[in-house]
Input
Amino acid sequence: MDRHTGSPHCTITLRRRPDGVRVTVTDTNTDPPTSREPDEDAEGGRGLALISGIAEHFGTVVRRGSKDVWAEILTSRPAALA
Output
């Protein structure tokens, strides 16, 4: 069982995009992730804070029996913004 999701199975998918990558983690725990303020010594609880700091967009899609937590991370600026 994964210590972060509580799921017996977890899949990570990387999709190349024209301006970056989309990372999706799929697991069988349907509870959405929650932000926490971990103690300095805590080994976990910083995931959403890290993702919000590096991702252009991120979110969660909950389905019956699974969920996807996804983030779009830019590796280059779109031409319109450069």
